[in-house]
Amino acid sequence: MNDFMTLSSKEIEKLSIIEKCLNDQDINMLKKLAVSKGGLMLNHCRRKGWLLLTCGVDALDENIASEERAYLQKHEQYNQVYLDAIRTSSRFPSTMQKEQREYYQKVLCRIIVNILIENPSFQYFQGFHDVCLTVLLAISETHALAVCDNLAKTAFRSFLEEPLGNAIEKLELILKIVREIDVEVYEFFETHSSKAEFAVSWILTWYAHVMRDQEQLFRLYDYFLASDEHMPIYVAAAIVLWRRSEILNPQSDYGRVHQKLCTFPKQFPIEAIINDAQDLYESYPPIIFASAVNRILDFTRSASTAYLARTIVCSFNMESFSAVFAVQERHFNYANLYYQTIITSKSEKNSAIMKEKSRVIQTKSNEVNNFAKQKFSASESKFPLKTMPTTETSASLKENR
Questions:
Q1: 3-class DSSP assignment, residue 305
Q2: Tens digit of pLDDT for each residue in 137-163?
Q3: Which of 31, 215, 262, 326 is an S-S bond match for 372, by CB 3.0 to 4.6 Å?
Q4: Domain segments of the chain as ranges
Q5: Class of 162-283 per CATH?
Q6: Which architecture, in CATH terms, is 64-160?
Q7: What pLDDT does 291 receive?
Q8: How far is 101 from 363, CA to CA, in rounded Å?
Q9: Continuous segment of H or E residues that includes residue 244
Q10: DSSP string spanning 83-129?
């Protein structure tokens, strides 16, 4: 989609809206456009767009990435970074001249080592160069360091501080999301004691290591940069669910399935996957998979009553009861009110189900009340729960949904 002449009338209209957002530095609208079909569309939009989405500015005063710093080569991780940088030849467009490719590889090396120097606690991992190269190819060298540095300090911080440990935790989340939608697929991996190892490179590189279509990769980065940091996990879950037939093929053993999942097909429905990932995120937000303590702290910082109520509703499963409902009894008024708003718009059968869930919530909240007081009294004193009003109409909850 790099050729303006190939754009449809709708795409041209969207492009003009994107450019207006860039000129106005309207980050909120830019995020919506980056998530919507086609993302930011063209690399000349991404040059300012990615900088705005990550750093909150649309220009920098100097080209830090191309600075010659004599001490870069003295860094203890320089050799590994350099070796990975020169192995990236296949990632470059076939039309790019050798001299230009080699120049970009040098810039890539500078970017990564600069980040490591400025952040001594970071330990380079193989795959981070794929992320930085994707940024470099999309927005050129001028602002690549600023964007990559921001990503290193945010989305990739946990990997740069403890690559394997944090990656394993995220892999486990993939299968937890899959379990909510397709138990059969989940049990396939559970039977083979799989922890979704096939997705390691997906998560560590934001798919740059496995996706060879650069335009689709840039589109995916549009989505990630404008979304919650967990989105690469939800995209992974969406991909696993999309490849259900291959996974459950009776003629394929786990070894073949693993090999297939490690290889991305040429025809990849990127927009459908993004839509599915967004649906998964909205239906099963990250908080319902979090540890008990993290849930409590997140609850105390909840921005709205409706968010709190929806979180409790989404968490309705026996496995997570104790963790979710240890937030003290006063929270459950909101869950019950939220149920009432659903009941009014559902069929009689669903209404009965919702009422039963509401009854179980009340019962369970009483059972864990003492547990909550013991376990979370310290957390509540440090992060006070919001003052809960005694009454609130279901209509007001609907407005906040």
A1: helix
A2: 999 887 899 999 999 999 999 899 876
A3: 326
A4: 64-160, 162-283, 290-400
A5: mainly alpha
A6: Orthogonal Bundle (1.10)
A7: 57
A8: 65
A9: helix 244-247
A10: HHHHT-GGGS-TTS-HHHHHHHHHHHHHHHHHHHHH-TT----TTHH
